[in-house]
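User: Can you fold this complex?
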Amino acid sequence: MSELLGIAVIFGATVLLAIPLGRYLATVYRGDRNWSDFLAPLERLLFRAGGIDAGRGMSWQQHLGALLTINLVWFLFALLVLCTQGSLPLNPDANPSMAPDLAFNTAISFLVNCNLQHYSGESGLSYLSQVVVIMFLQFVSAATGMAACVVVFNALKEGSTDKLGNFYDYFVKSLTRVLLPISLLVALVLVFQGTPMTFAGKQPLITLQGDTTAVSRGPVAAMVAIKELGTNGGGFFGANSAHPLENPTYLTNMVENFALVLIPMAMVFALGFYLRRRRLSYMVFGVMTAGFFLLLAPTVYYEMQGNPAIARMGADMHLGAMEGKEIRLGAAASAYWGITNTIISCGSVNSMHDSHMPISGLSEMLGMMTNAFYGGVGVGLLNFFVFVIIAVFISGLMVGRTPELLGKKIEAREMKIALIVALLHPLMILAGTALAAHLYVGNPTEYAGWLANPGYHGFSEMLYEYTSAAANNGSGFEGLGDNTPFWNISTGVVLLLSRFLPIIGPVAIAGLLARKKYTPESAGTLRVDTATFGLMVFFVIWIIAALAFFPALALGPLAEHFSIY
Amino acid sequence: MKNNLVSAFRLTLALLVLCCGVYPALVWGAAQVAPGQGQGVQVAHKGRVVGFLNVGQKFDRPEYFNSRPSAVDYHADGSGGSNKGPSNPAYLAEVHTRVAAFLEQNPTIRPGQVPVELVTASGSGLDPHLSPAGAYTQVARVARLRGLPVARVRALVAAHVQEPIFVLLGPSKVNVLQLNLALDSLK
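Assistant: Here's the predicted assembly.
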């Protein structure tokens, strides 16, 4: 009972704080006066350092140019540090430099806010890499997503324009006014609950019963805060937030789980405040929350029930399915974490998803396949926007009117872009899984190291990996032996395409819409802020995102479910 | 493009100073007044450090309260779970062996009462806790092997049960290291 109450409190607190944060975000991006203006000198300093005129309005092409260029700089910088970390300072545990294919995968994966990790932090990274590559990219990739989202907000304003604000302005303010201050608060909670923040290396010791061991540490607290807040998800330690130093208490678990849902949810409310269309926010929030609960309920149920195969052996199952879970967190909070981290492209874990019950694994994959129930910071709303475009078009055809979104006509060009983005996602996941499954079945002995589990579950491990890469999520069925050139390179390519096309697409649509003639709303307009339209969007998401995957899900988690119940 | 590149490069340098210099320095500074000074909270016994409060360690000797199975054997310079799926036959056979071993070591416990956390590996492999039931079911064995009255050992466990936050949020738990330290000091 206290476990269920725990997750109810986390959800309630997140909603209650996301609304004022959404209002704050809207004022920040609009450039209105607010209490955080004392940070303006810092921003001016950053703009001067970059030689940037933050007041210059940019077209959608200029936005994308600035965004992609700075991402390229980060990528090369990250690659350089990872490949040479062994001989750079701040490496007390003498960890080696990364192999090129692993460095390629890691640099991309953090650049694109995915944080798929084919290494373990304890032995795979120096403290320097943890701070200037991993943590740095966690900050800036989150700010990139938020900035791209604001560009789309601008396009939905009334009137027609070419100028959609300034990328650097939105990007830098996302860092200084939102990500850095909130991260600092979260990090403070963590250090006072016992999360390490040190540059000392691992500590050798002899345990009470006399075994020799060593305990890895590092500058953990600062990184874990932005890992959650920026919906990055890449942990300091291999076990991520299941690790008792990364997530030492139930309180830190609540705070971390709260932090990762906060901004994606606040962006939804920010949309309403920014456009002064509050009802639109409520529609979006309603659809997203309905989808969230639909995935959450079965997961909590099956995790709290536990594994029937183990119950039959004579175990007392009142704690639920405890394989891969921590006592201090419990089954309910682990299930809640699992779903929030997959609907939102955060992908940190506080329990091992590979050991979750089959229906939970299925819900987690569905969360990533839809990828628009809250979604990652900024990009979640961009994905949702694509589904809205499609829903507007279909509803328009159904009632025999020109499809219009907030006074702008949706035409063939926008629809083509929206459909390419929407269909790219299943293509990446299904083609990738098909290729891997084909290779594996062709030569099971050569690829025996890939799968930790036989049968249906082994298939789920491969499906999950590509789903996670395509959703830029980063969690994994970690039994997969994924640090091989095949997995590093194939998922790396999926990551790049699945990050930048879903940003480029919606921003391009936004740019095209913004230039169109604005027709004020009338009695003949299709209203998008109604429950009816919300239902329409909901079904478009399920039909496009969920049904495309049904055959694959039937082969993996569904088949496994029926094999043990 | 060229303008963007120069700006991108210079802005990146400035942000490195802010996000990777100033921000971690502030957190590091705060950690100096936090429990354990940001080094992790260490536990000393008879003048030597025997562990970290939050990091589980291996207890498999029968006169101690045993900790959970671990996929990394409690080597805390690594971490991770078993990643075994719920239907994996080899895994289920292993769990079955653990259940049988527990019943043999704790003859007062009947099938159906074996605490699930003692036959399954944790997510981190470093879980420092047991559920209250996980500790209570080991009381009879520990008391017998140490020649202590069962009631005293049971009271010791009861004193180490940590209730949920405000008695309302989250599970109850017992820190195995603290419990075993207290056990060693019982006369």
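The mean pLDDT of chain A is 91. The first strand of chain A starts at residue 203 and ends at 206.
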